[in-house]
Amino acid sequence: MEQALLLPDTLHIGEKCSKASRAIRLCHRDFRRKPNPIHGRLALITDETIGRFARPLICSNFCKAISLKNSNYFFNFAYLWKSAYDSKVLFGWEGKTSGIKNLLFDAFTTKHLVSRPPQELAKRFFDLNAPMEAKKQKLLQETAGLAALRDWLLPMLMNGQVTVA
User: Which of helix, strand or coil describes residue 18?
Assistant: First the structure.
């Protein structure tokens, strides 16, 4: 594995937004990084994630949308970012000069070194993780549907409009 910077040649930073709204529409295999209050958290955006919602997903002005140039590294990048977050590496890259903590994203992504696997290995890792992520999103959609059914049915059960036989 080669030692490489986390991002510079592998990423597109979300510049998909209109200047007026500052909102970035998220696409398949995008990441959304929320800088505050829990800065550095990452959300994976897949077709299945987008399919769970009736409206387009957008990235607000306090988040950053990230797309990889090579989608084979999608889950590898997510794993490395989560590892950096969980081990509190990202907290060493906080800017606090204004009193508000912000992740120094550009500095972190151009100076933090990680081991990058060969593309074939990244593709195998992607192929292993993609079905699990799709299943996770399907189960989340099913859970949301069951919660909506519960919220609709429970009041009718409690006031006697319907009974269980």
Answer: coil
- Structural domain boundaries of the chain? 2-158
Reduced to 3 states (helix: H, G, I; strand: E, B; else coil), residue 2 is strand
Helix (H/G/I), strand (E/B), else coil: 65: strand
Residues present in the chain in total: 165
pLDDT tens string 27-43: 767 766 554 445 678 88
What is the Cα–Cα distance from 59 to 32, expressed in whole angstroms? 7
- Could you write out the three-class secondary structure of 96-113? CCCCCCEECHHHHHHHCE
- Classify domain 2-158 at the CATH class level: alpha beta
DSSP, residue by residue, 79-147: HHHHHHHHTT-GGGGEE-TTSS-EE-HHHHHHH-EEEE--HHHHHHHHHHHHHHHHHHHHHHHHHHHHH
- How far is 103 from 39, CA to CA, in rounded Å? 6
Return d(Cα 132, Cα 110) in angstroms, integer: 30
Q: What would the pLDDT profile of 69-94 be if each residue is shown by its tens digit?
A: 999 999 999 999 999 888 888 888 88
The pairing of strands 102-103 and 58-59 is unpaired
The 3-class SS string of 21-49 reads: CCCEECCCCEEEEECCCCCCEEEEECHHH
